[in-house]
Amino acid sequence: MLFLEHLKIILLLGWRNTIRQKRRALVSLLLIFLSTFLLIFMVGMMRGQYGQMFSSAIELYPGPIQITGEGYHDDPSYERLIYDVDEVTGPLSDIESVKEYAVRFETFALYSSGDESAGGMLVGVEPEKEKFFSKIEESLVDGEFIQSTDEKVVYIGVVLANKLNVKVGDELSFISSDIYYSIASDNVTVKGIFKTNVGDFDAMMAFIPKPYFDTLFVSENIASHILILPEDPQSLGKPTRQIKKTLDGSIYQVSTWKDYLQELVSLLEMDRNFGYIMIGMFFTVIFFVIMIFTLISVHTRTKEIGIMRANGTTPNLVAAILFTETTIVSILAIILGGLAGAYVVWYLNTNPYPIEMKEALEVAEQYAELGLQWDPVLKTEFSLFLIFQNMVIIFIMSLVAVVYPILRVNKLKPVEAIAGGKG
What we know:
The structure is a single chain. Helix content is 54%, strand content 19%. The chain has helices spanning 2-20, 22-60, 85-89, 127-130, 158-164, 199-204, 210-217, 237-246, 257-260, 262-300, 302-310, 315-350, 358-369, 384-401, 403-410, 414-418; strands at residues 65-69, 98-113, 116-125, 140-143, 153-157, 171-177, 183-194, 205-209, 225-230, 252-256, 353-354, 377-378. The chain is built from 16 helices and 12 strands. It is α+β, with helices and mostly antiparallel strands.
């Protein structure tokens, strides 16, 4: 009961002092409100931008999960192909966490048209399934996308088309080698041209229907990749484990995008860590601003605190009252800042804001040179857990910022404090 009485007194004194010093309380509230709002917004923005880049990289072409021959990613040779596609895809229909799968066969080819020639990748795809795994169909800028029944047609990147000086309806030739290392070649008509804004991809990739590819490369029931789309794209662990259980690990390899996009992951992780360092430095400055303001506020009350001490108030009780004042203001400011930050983050998550600045377009081009597709839009990641976590960080920061001023004023003797802290 005594403890509850003391607690009640401390709360009443803390609330009274907060109301009495409105200007000081409002300035503190504004500082903590802005800190909370900015932290939630900056973290949401940073995670949103990197999340967008990760998603774009996966959805552009590679897909979330791939099945390949063992060691194919390190040595993409014909000796490491999947030589029995039906054996691999048969059990996939029984795995509940697998939503869709698609078969691809990638190989190198030399293209020519008139006096122009260029090297690149030729990929046999299942056109009707590609919409689940890549953006090549929606990246169409001229002509039409290929169909499974098509023959002697090709769908190529805009940069490759420019290199070969061809447009929709023009004919080009390609030469490659089939799975037995014999010549595979044909003359094909450009049915469609795509543009992803990722320079290397648009300059290297060409697609033909898998059935037509198989007749040229003697590759029926053979593939270089089988792509898997899980029911929950955010959860790759469960389907990956289930698929591995159905396959011979000595023959086949199951990989997620984090495995075959390691360089990209490392690049973005490094960039993101640098972003967190910048946020940390910014809020270190904010912390000291709050602490200095608190120190000044406490210093202006030195005489008041000295009188309290002279009347028998213990240093611990003084500290408790000052902590209570800070806690009241912090909770109110953090709730307001959290609500404002959450709303802005939610709004920009559902309504990305286009960035039309020249600098943003230049950054998008630089990312494209690195193989990243980034749309110059301001899109945030909305996560209630992250928002609450950031609010807790600011709350702790606010309480820690008041420790030094309290310790400083409590070191003074009552007479010194009444005299204004001198002596």
